[in-house]
Amino acid sequence: MKINLSRKWPLAALTLGLGLAVSGVQAQHINAGALGSGQLYFQNVSGFVNSSGFVITNREITLLQGAPALTSPGLFEVSGLSFTALGATSNALHNSSPFAASLGAFVELRLETVLSGPAGGIFSFWDHDAITSPTYSLGVGASGTSLIELSDATLGAGTVGGDPYGHLHGRRYAVDLPGDYVVGFRLVDTSVNGLGGSPIQTPSDLYLLTFHAVPEPSVIALGAMGAIAFGFATRRPRNNTVK
């Protein structure tokens, strides 16, 4: 059955390409905030649209430096992508932002759908303490309600008057088959600090991110490419001999 996106989900203007085109990419942040006391949204959305040419490297998981090793060979993961929640106050950790959610809000990212991808493919989220199995996973074509905390509860986020700020590290997003995965996320406020115990902020539109997973060349292929390159570099044209 064909899904009419315009009816089922209001779509936000965010499409993020995650591919194998760039290596050694610095951490990239997508910052969650709110339109006053209303709807949640990604404040720096314009920096992550396809037209910007922004690409993050996916690579086959073997050993992750500075974090627990994932022991599921064959997966493709991206670790340089970080969703954050902007802070409403200033302290030693962060500055205040006029685009932050309201004090008392608790911002989370809902993994809502894997709209398209290779048949049988699975998208997964690995929290900082996930080692041998993912925290959440969702197959291509499926819908879900799993929540990823962006606000930091250890700093008081979600309490009455608490700053919604959060910048949590060590998270990874992975897929198990090469190809393009269109994944839908939505920002939600799960606090109970609004009127009558309701959330303060309303949910965001649905944001569609494209994760592009391409297998890395094998060691044998890389060796062959190196040998060819070395051969060209050492070849000397006869008519260029110096007497």
Note the run of SSEs as H and E: HEEEEEEEEEEEEEEH
Distance from first to last alpha carbon: 76 Å
> How large, in whole angstroms, is the Cα Rg?
22 Å
Q: Given the helix and strand composition, which structural class is it?
A: mainly beta
Which overall shape is indicated by the principal axes computed on the Cα atoms?
elongated
- Tally of DSSP β-strands: 14
Largest sheet, strands/sense/barrel: 6 strands, mixed
Percentage of residues assigned to helices: under 10%
Tally of helical segments: 2
What does this structure look like?
The protein has 243 residues and is mainly beta. Helix content is 8%, strand content 31%. It has 2 helices and 14 strands; from the N terminus they run H-E-E-E-E-E-E-E-E-E-E-E-E-E-E-H. The protein has helices spanning 5-8, 219-234; strands at 17-19, 28-34, 40-42, 55-57, 59-60, 76-78, 81-85, 107-116, 122-126, 136-139, 143-149, 172-175, 179-189, 206-213. A 6-stranded mixed sheet has the order 4-1-14-13-8-11, with no helix packed on it. A 5-stranded antiparallel sheet has the order 5-6-12-9-10, with no helix packed on it. It has a 3-stranded mixed sheet with strand order 3-2-7, with no helix packed on it. A hairpin with a 5-residue loop joins strand 2 (28-34) and strand 3. The chain is elongated.
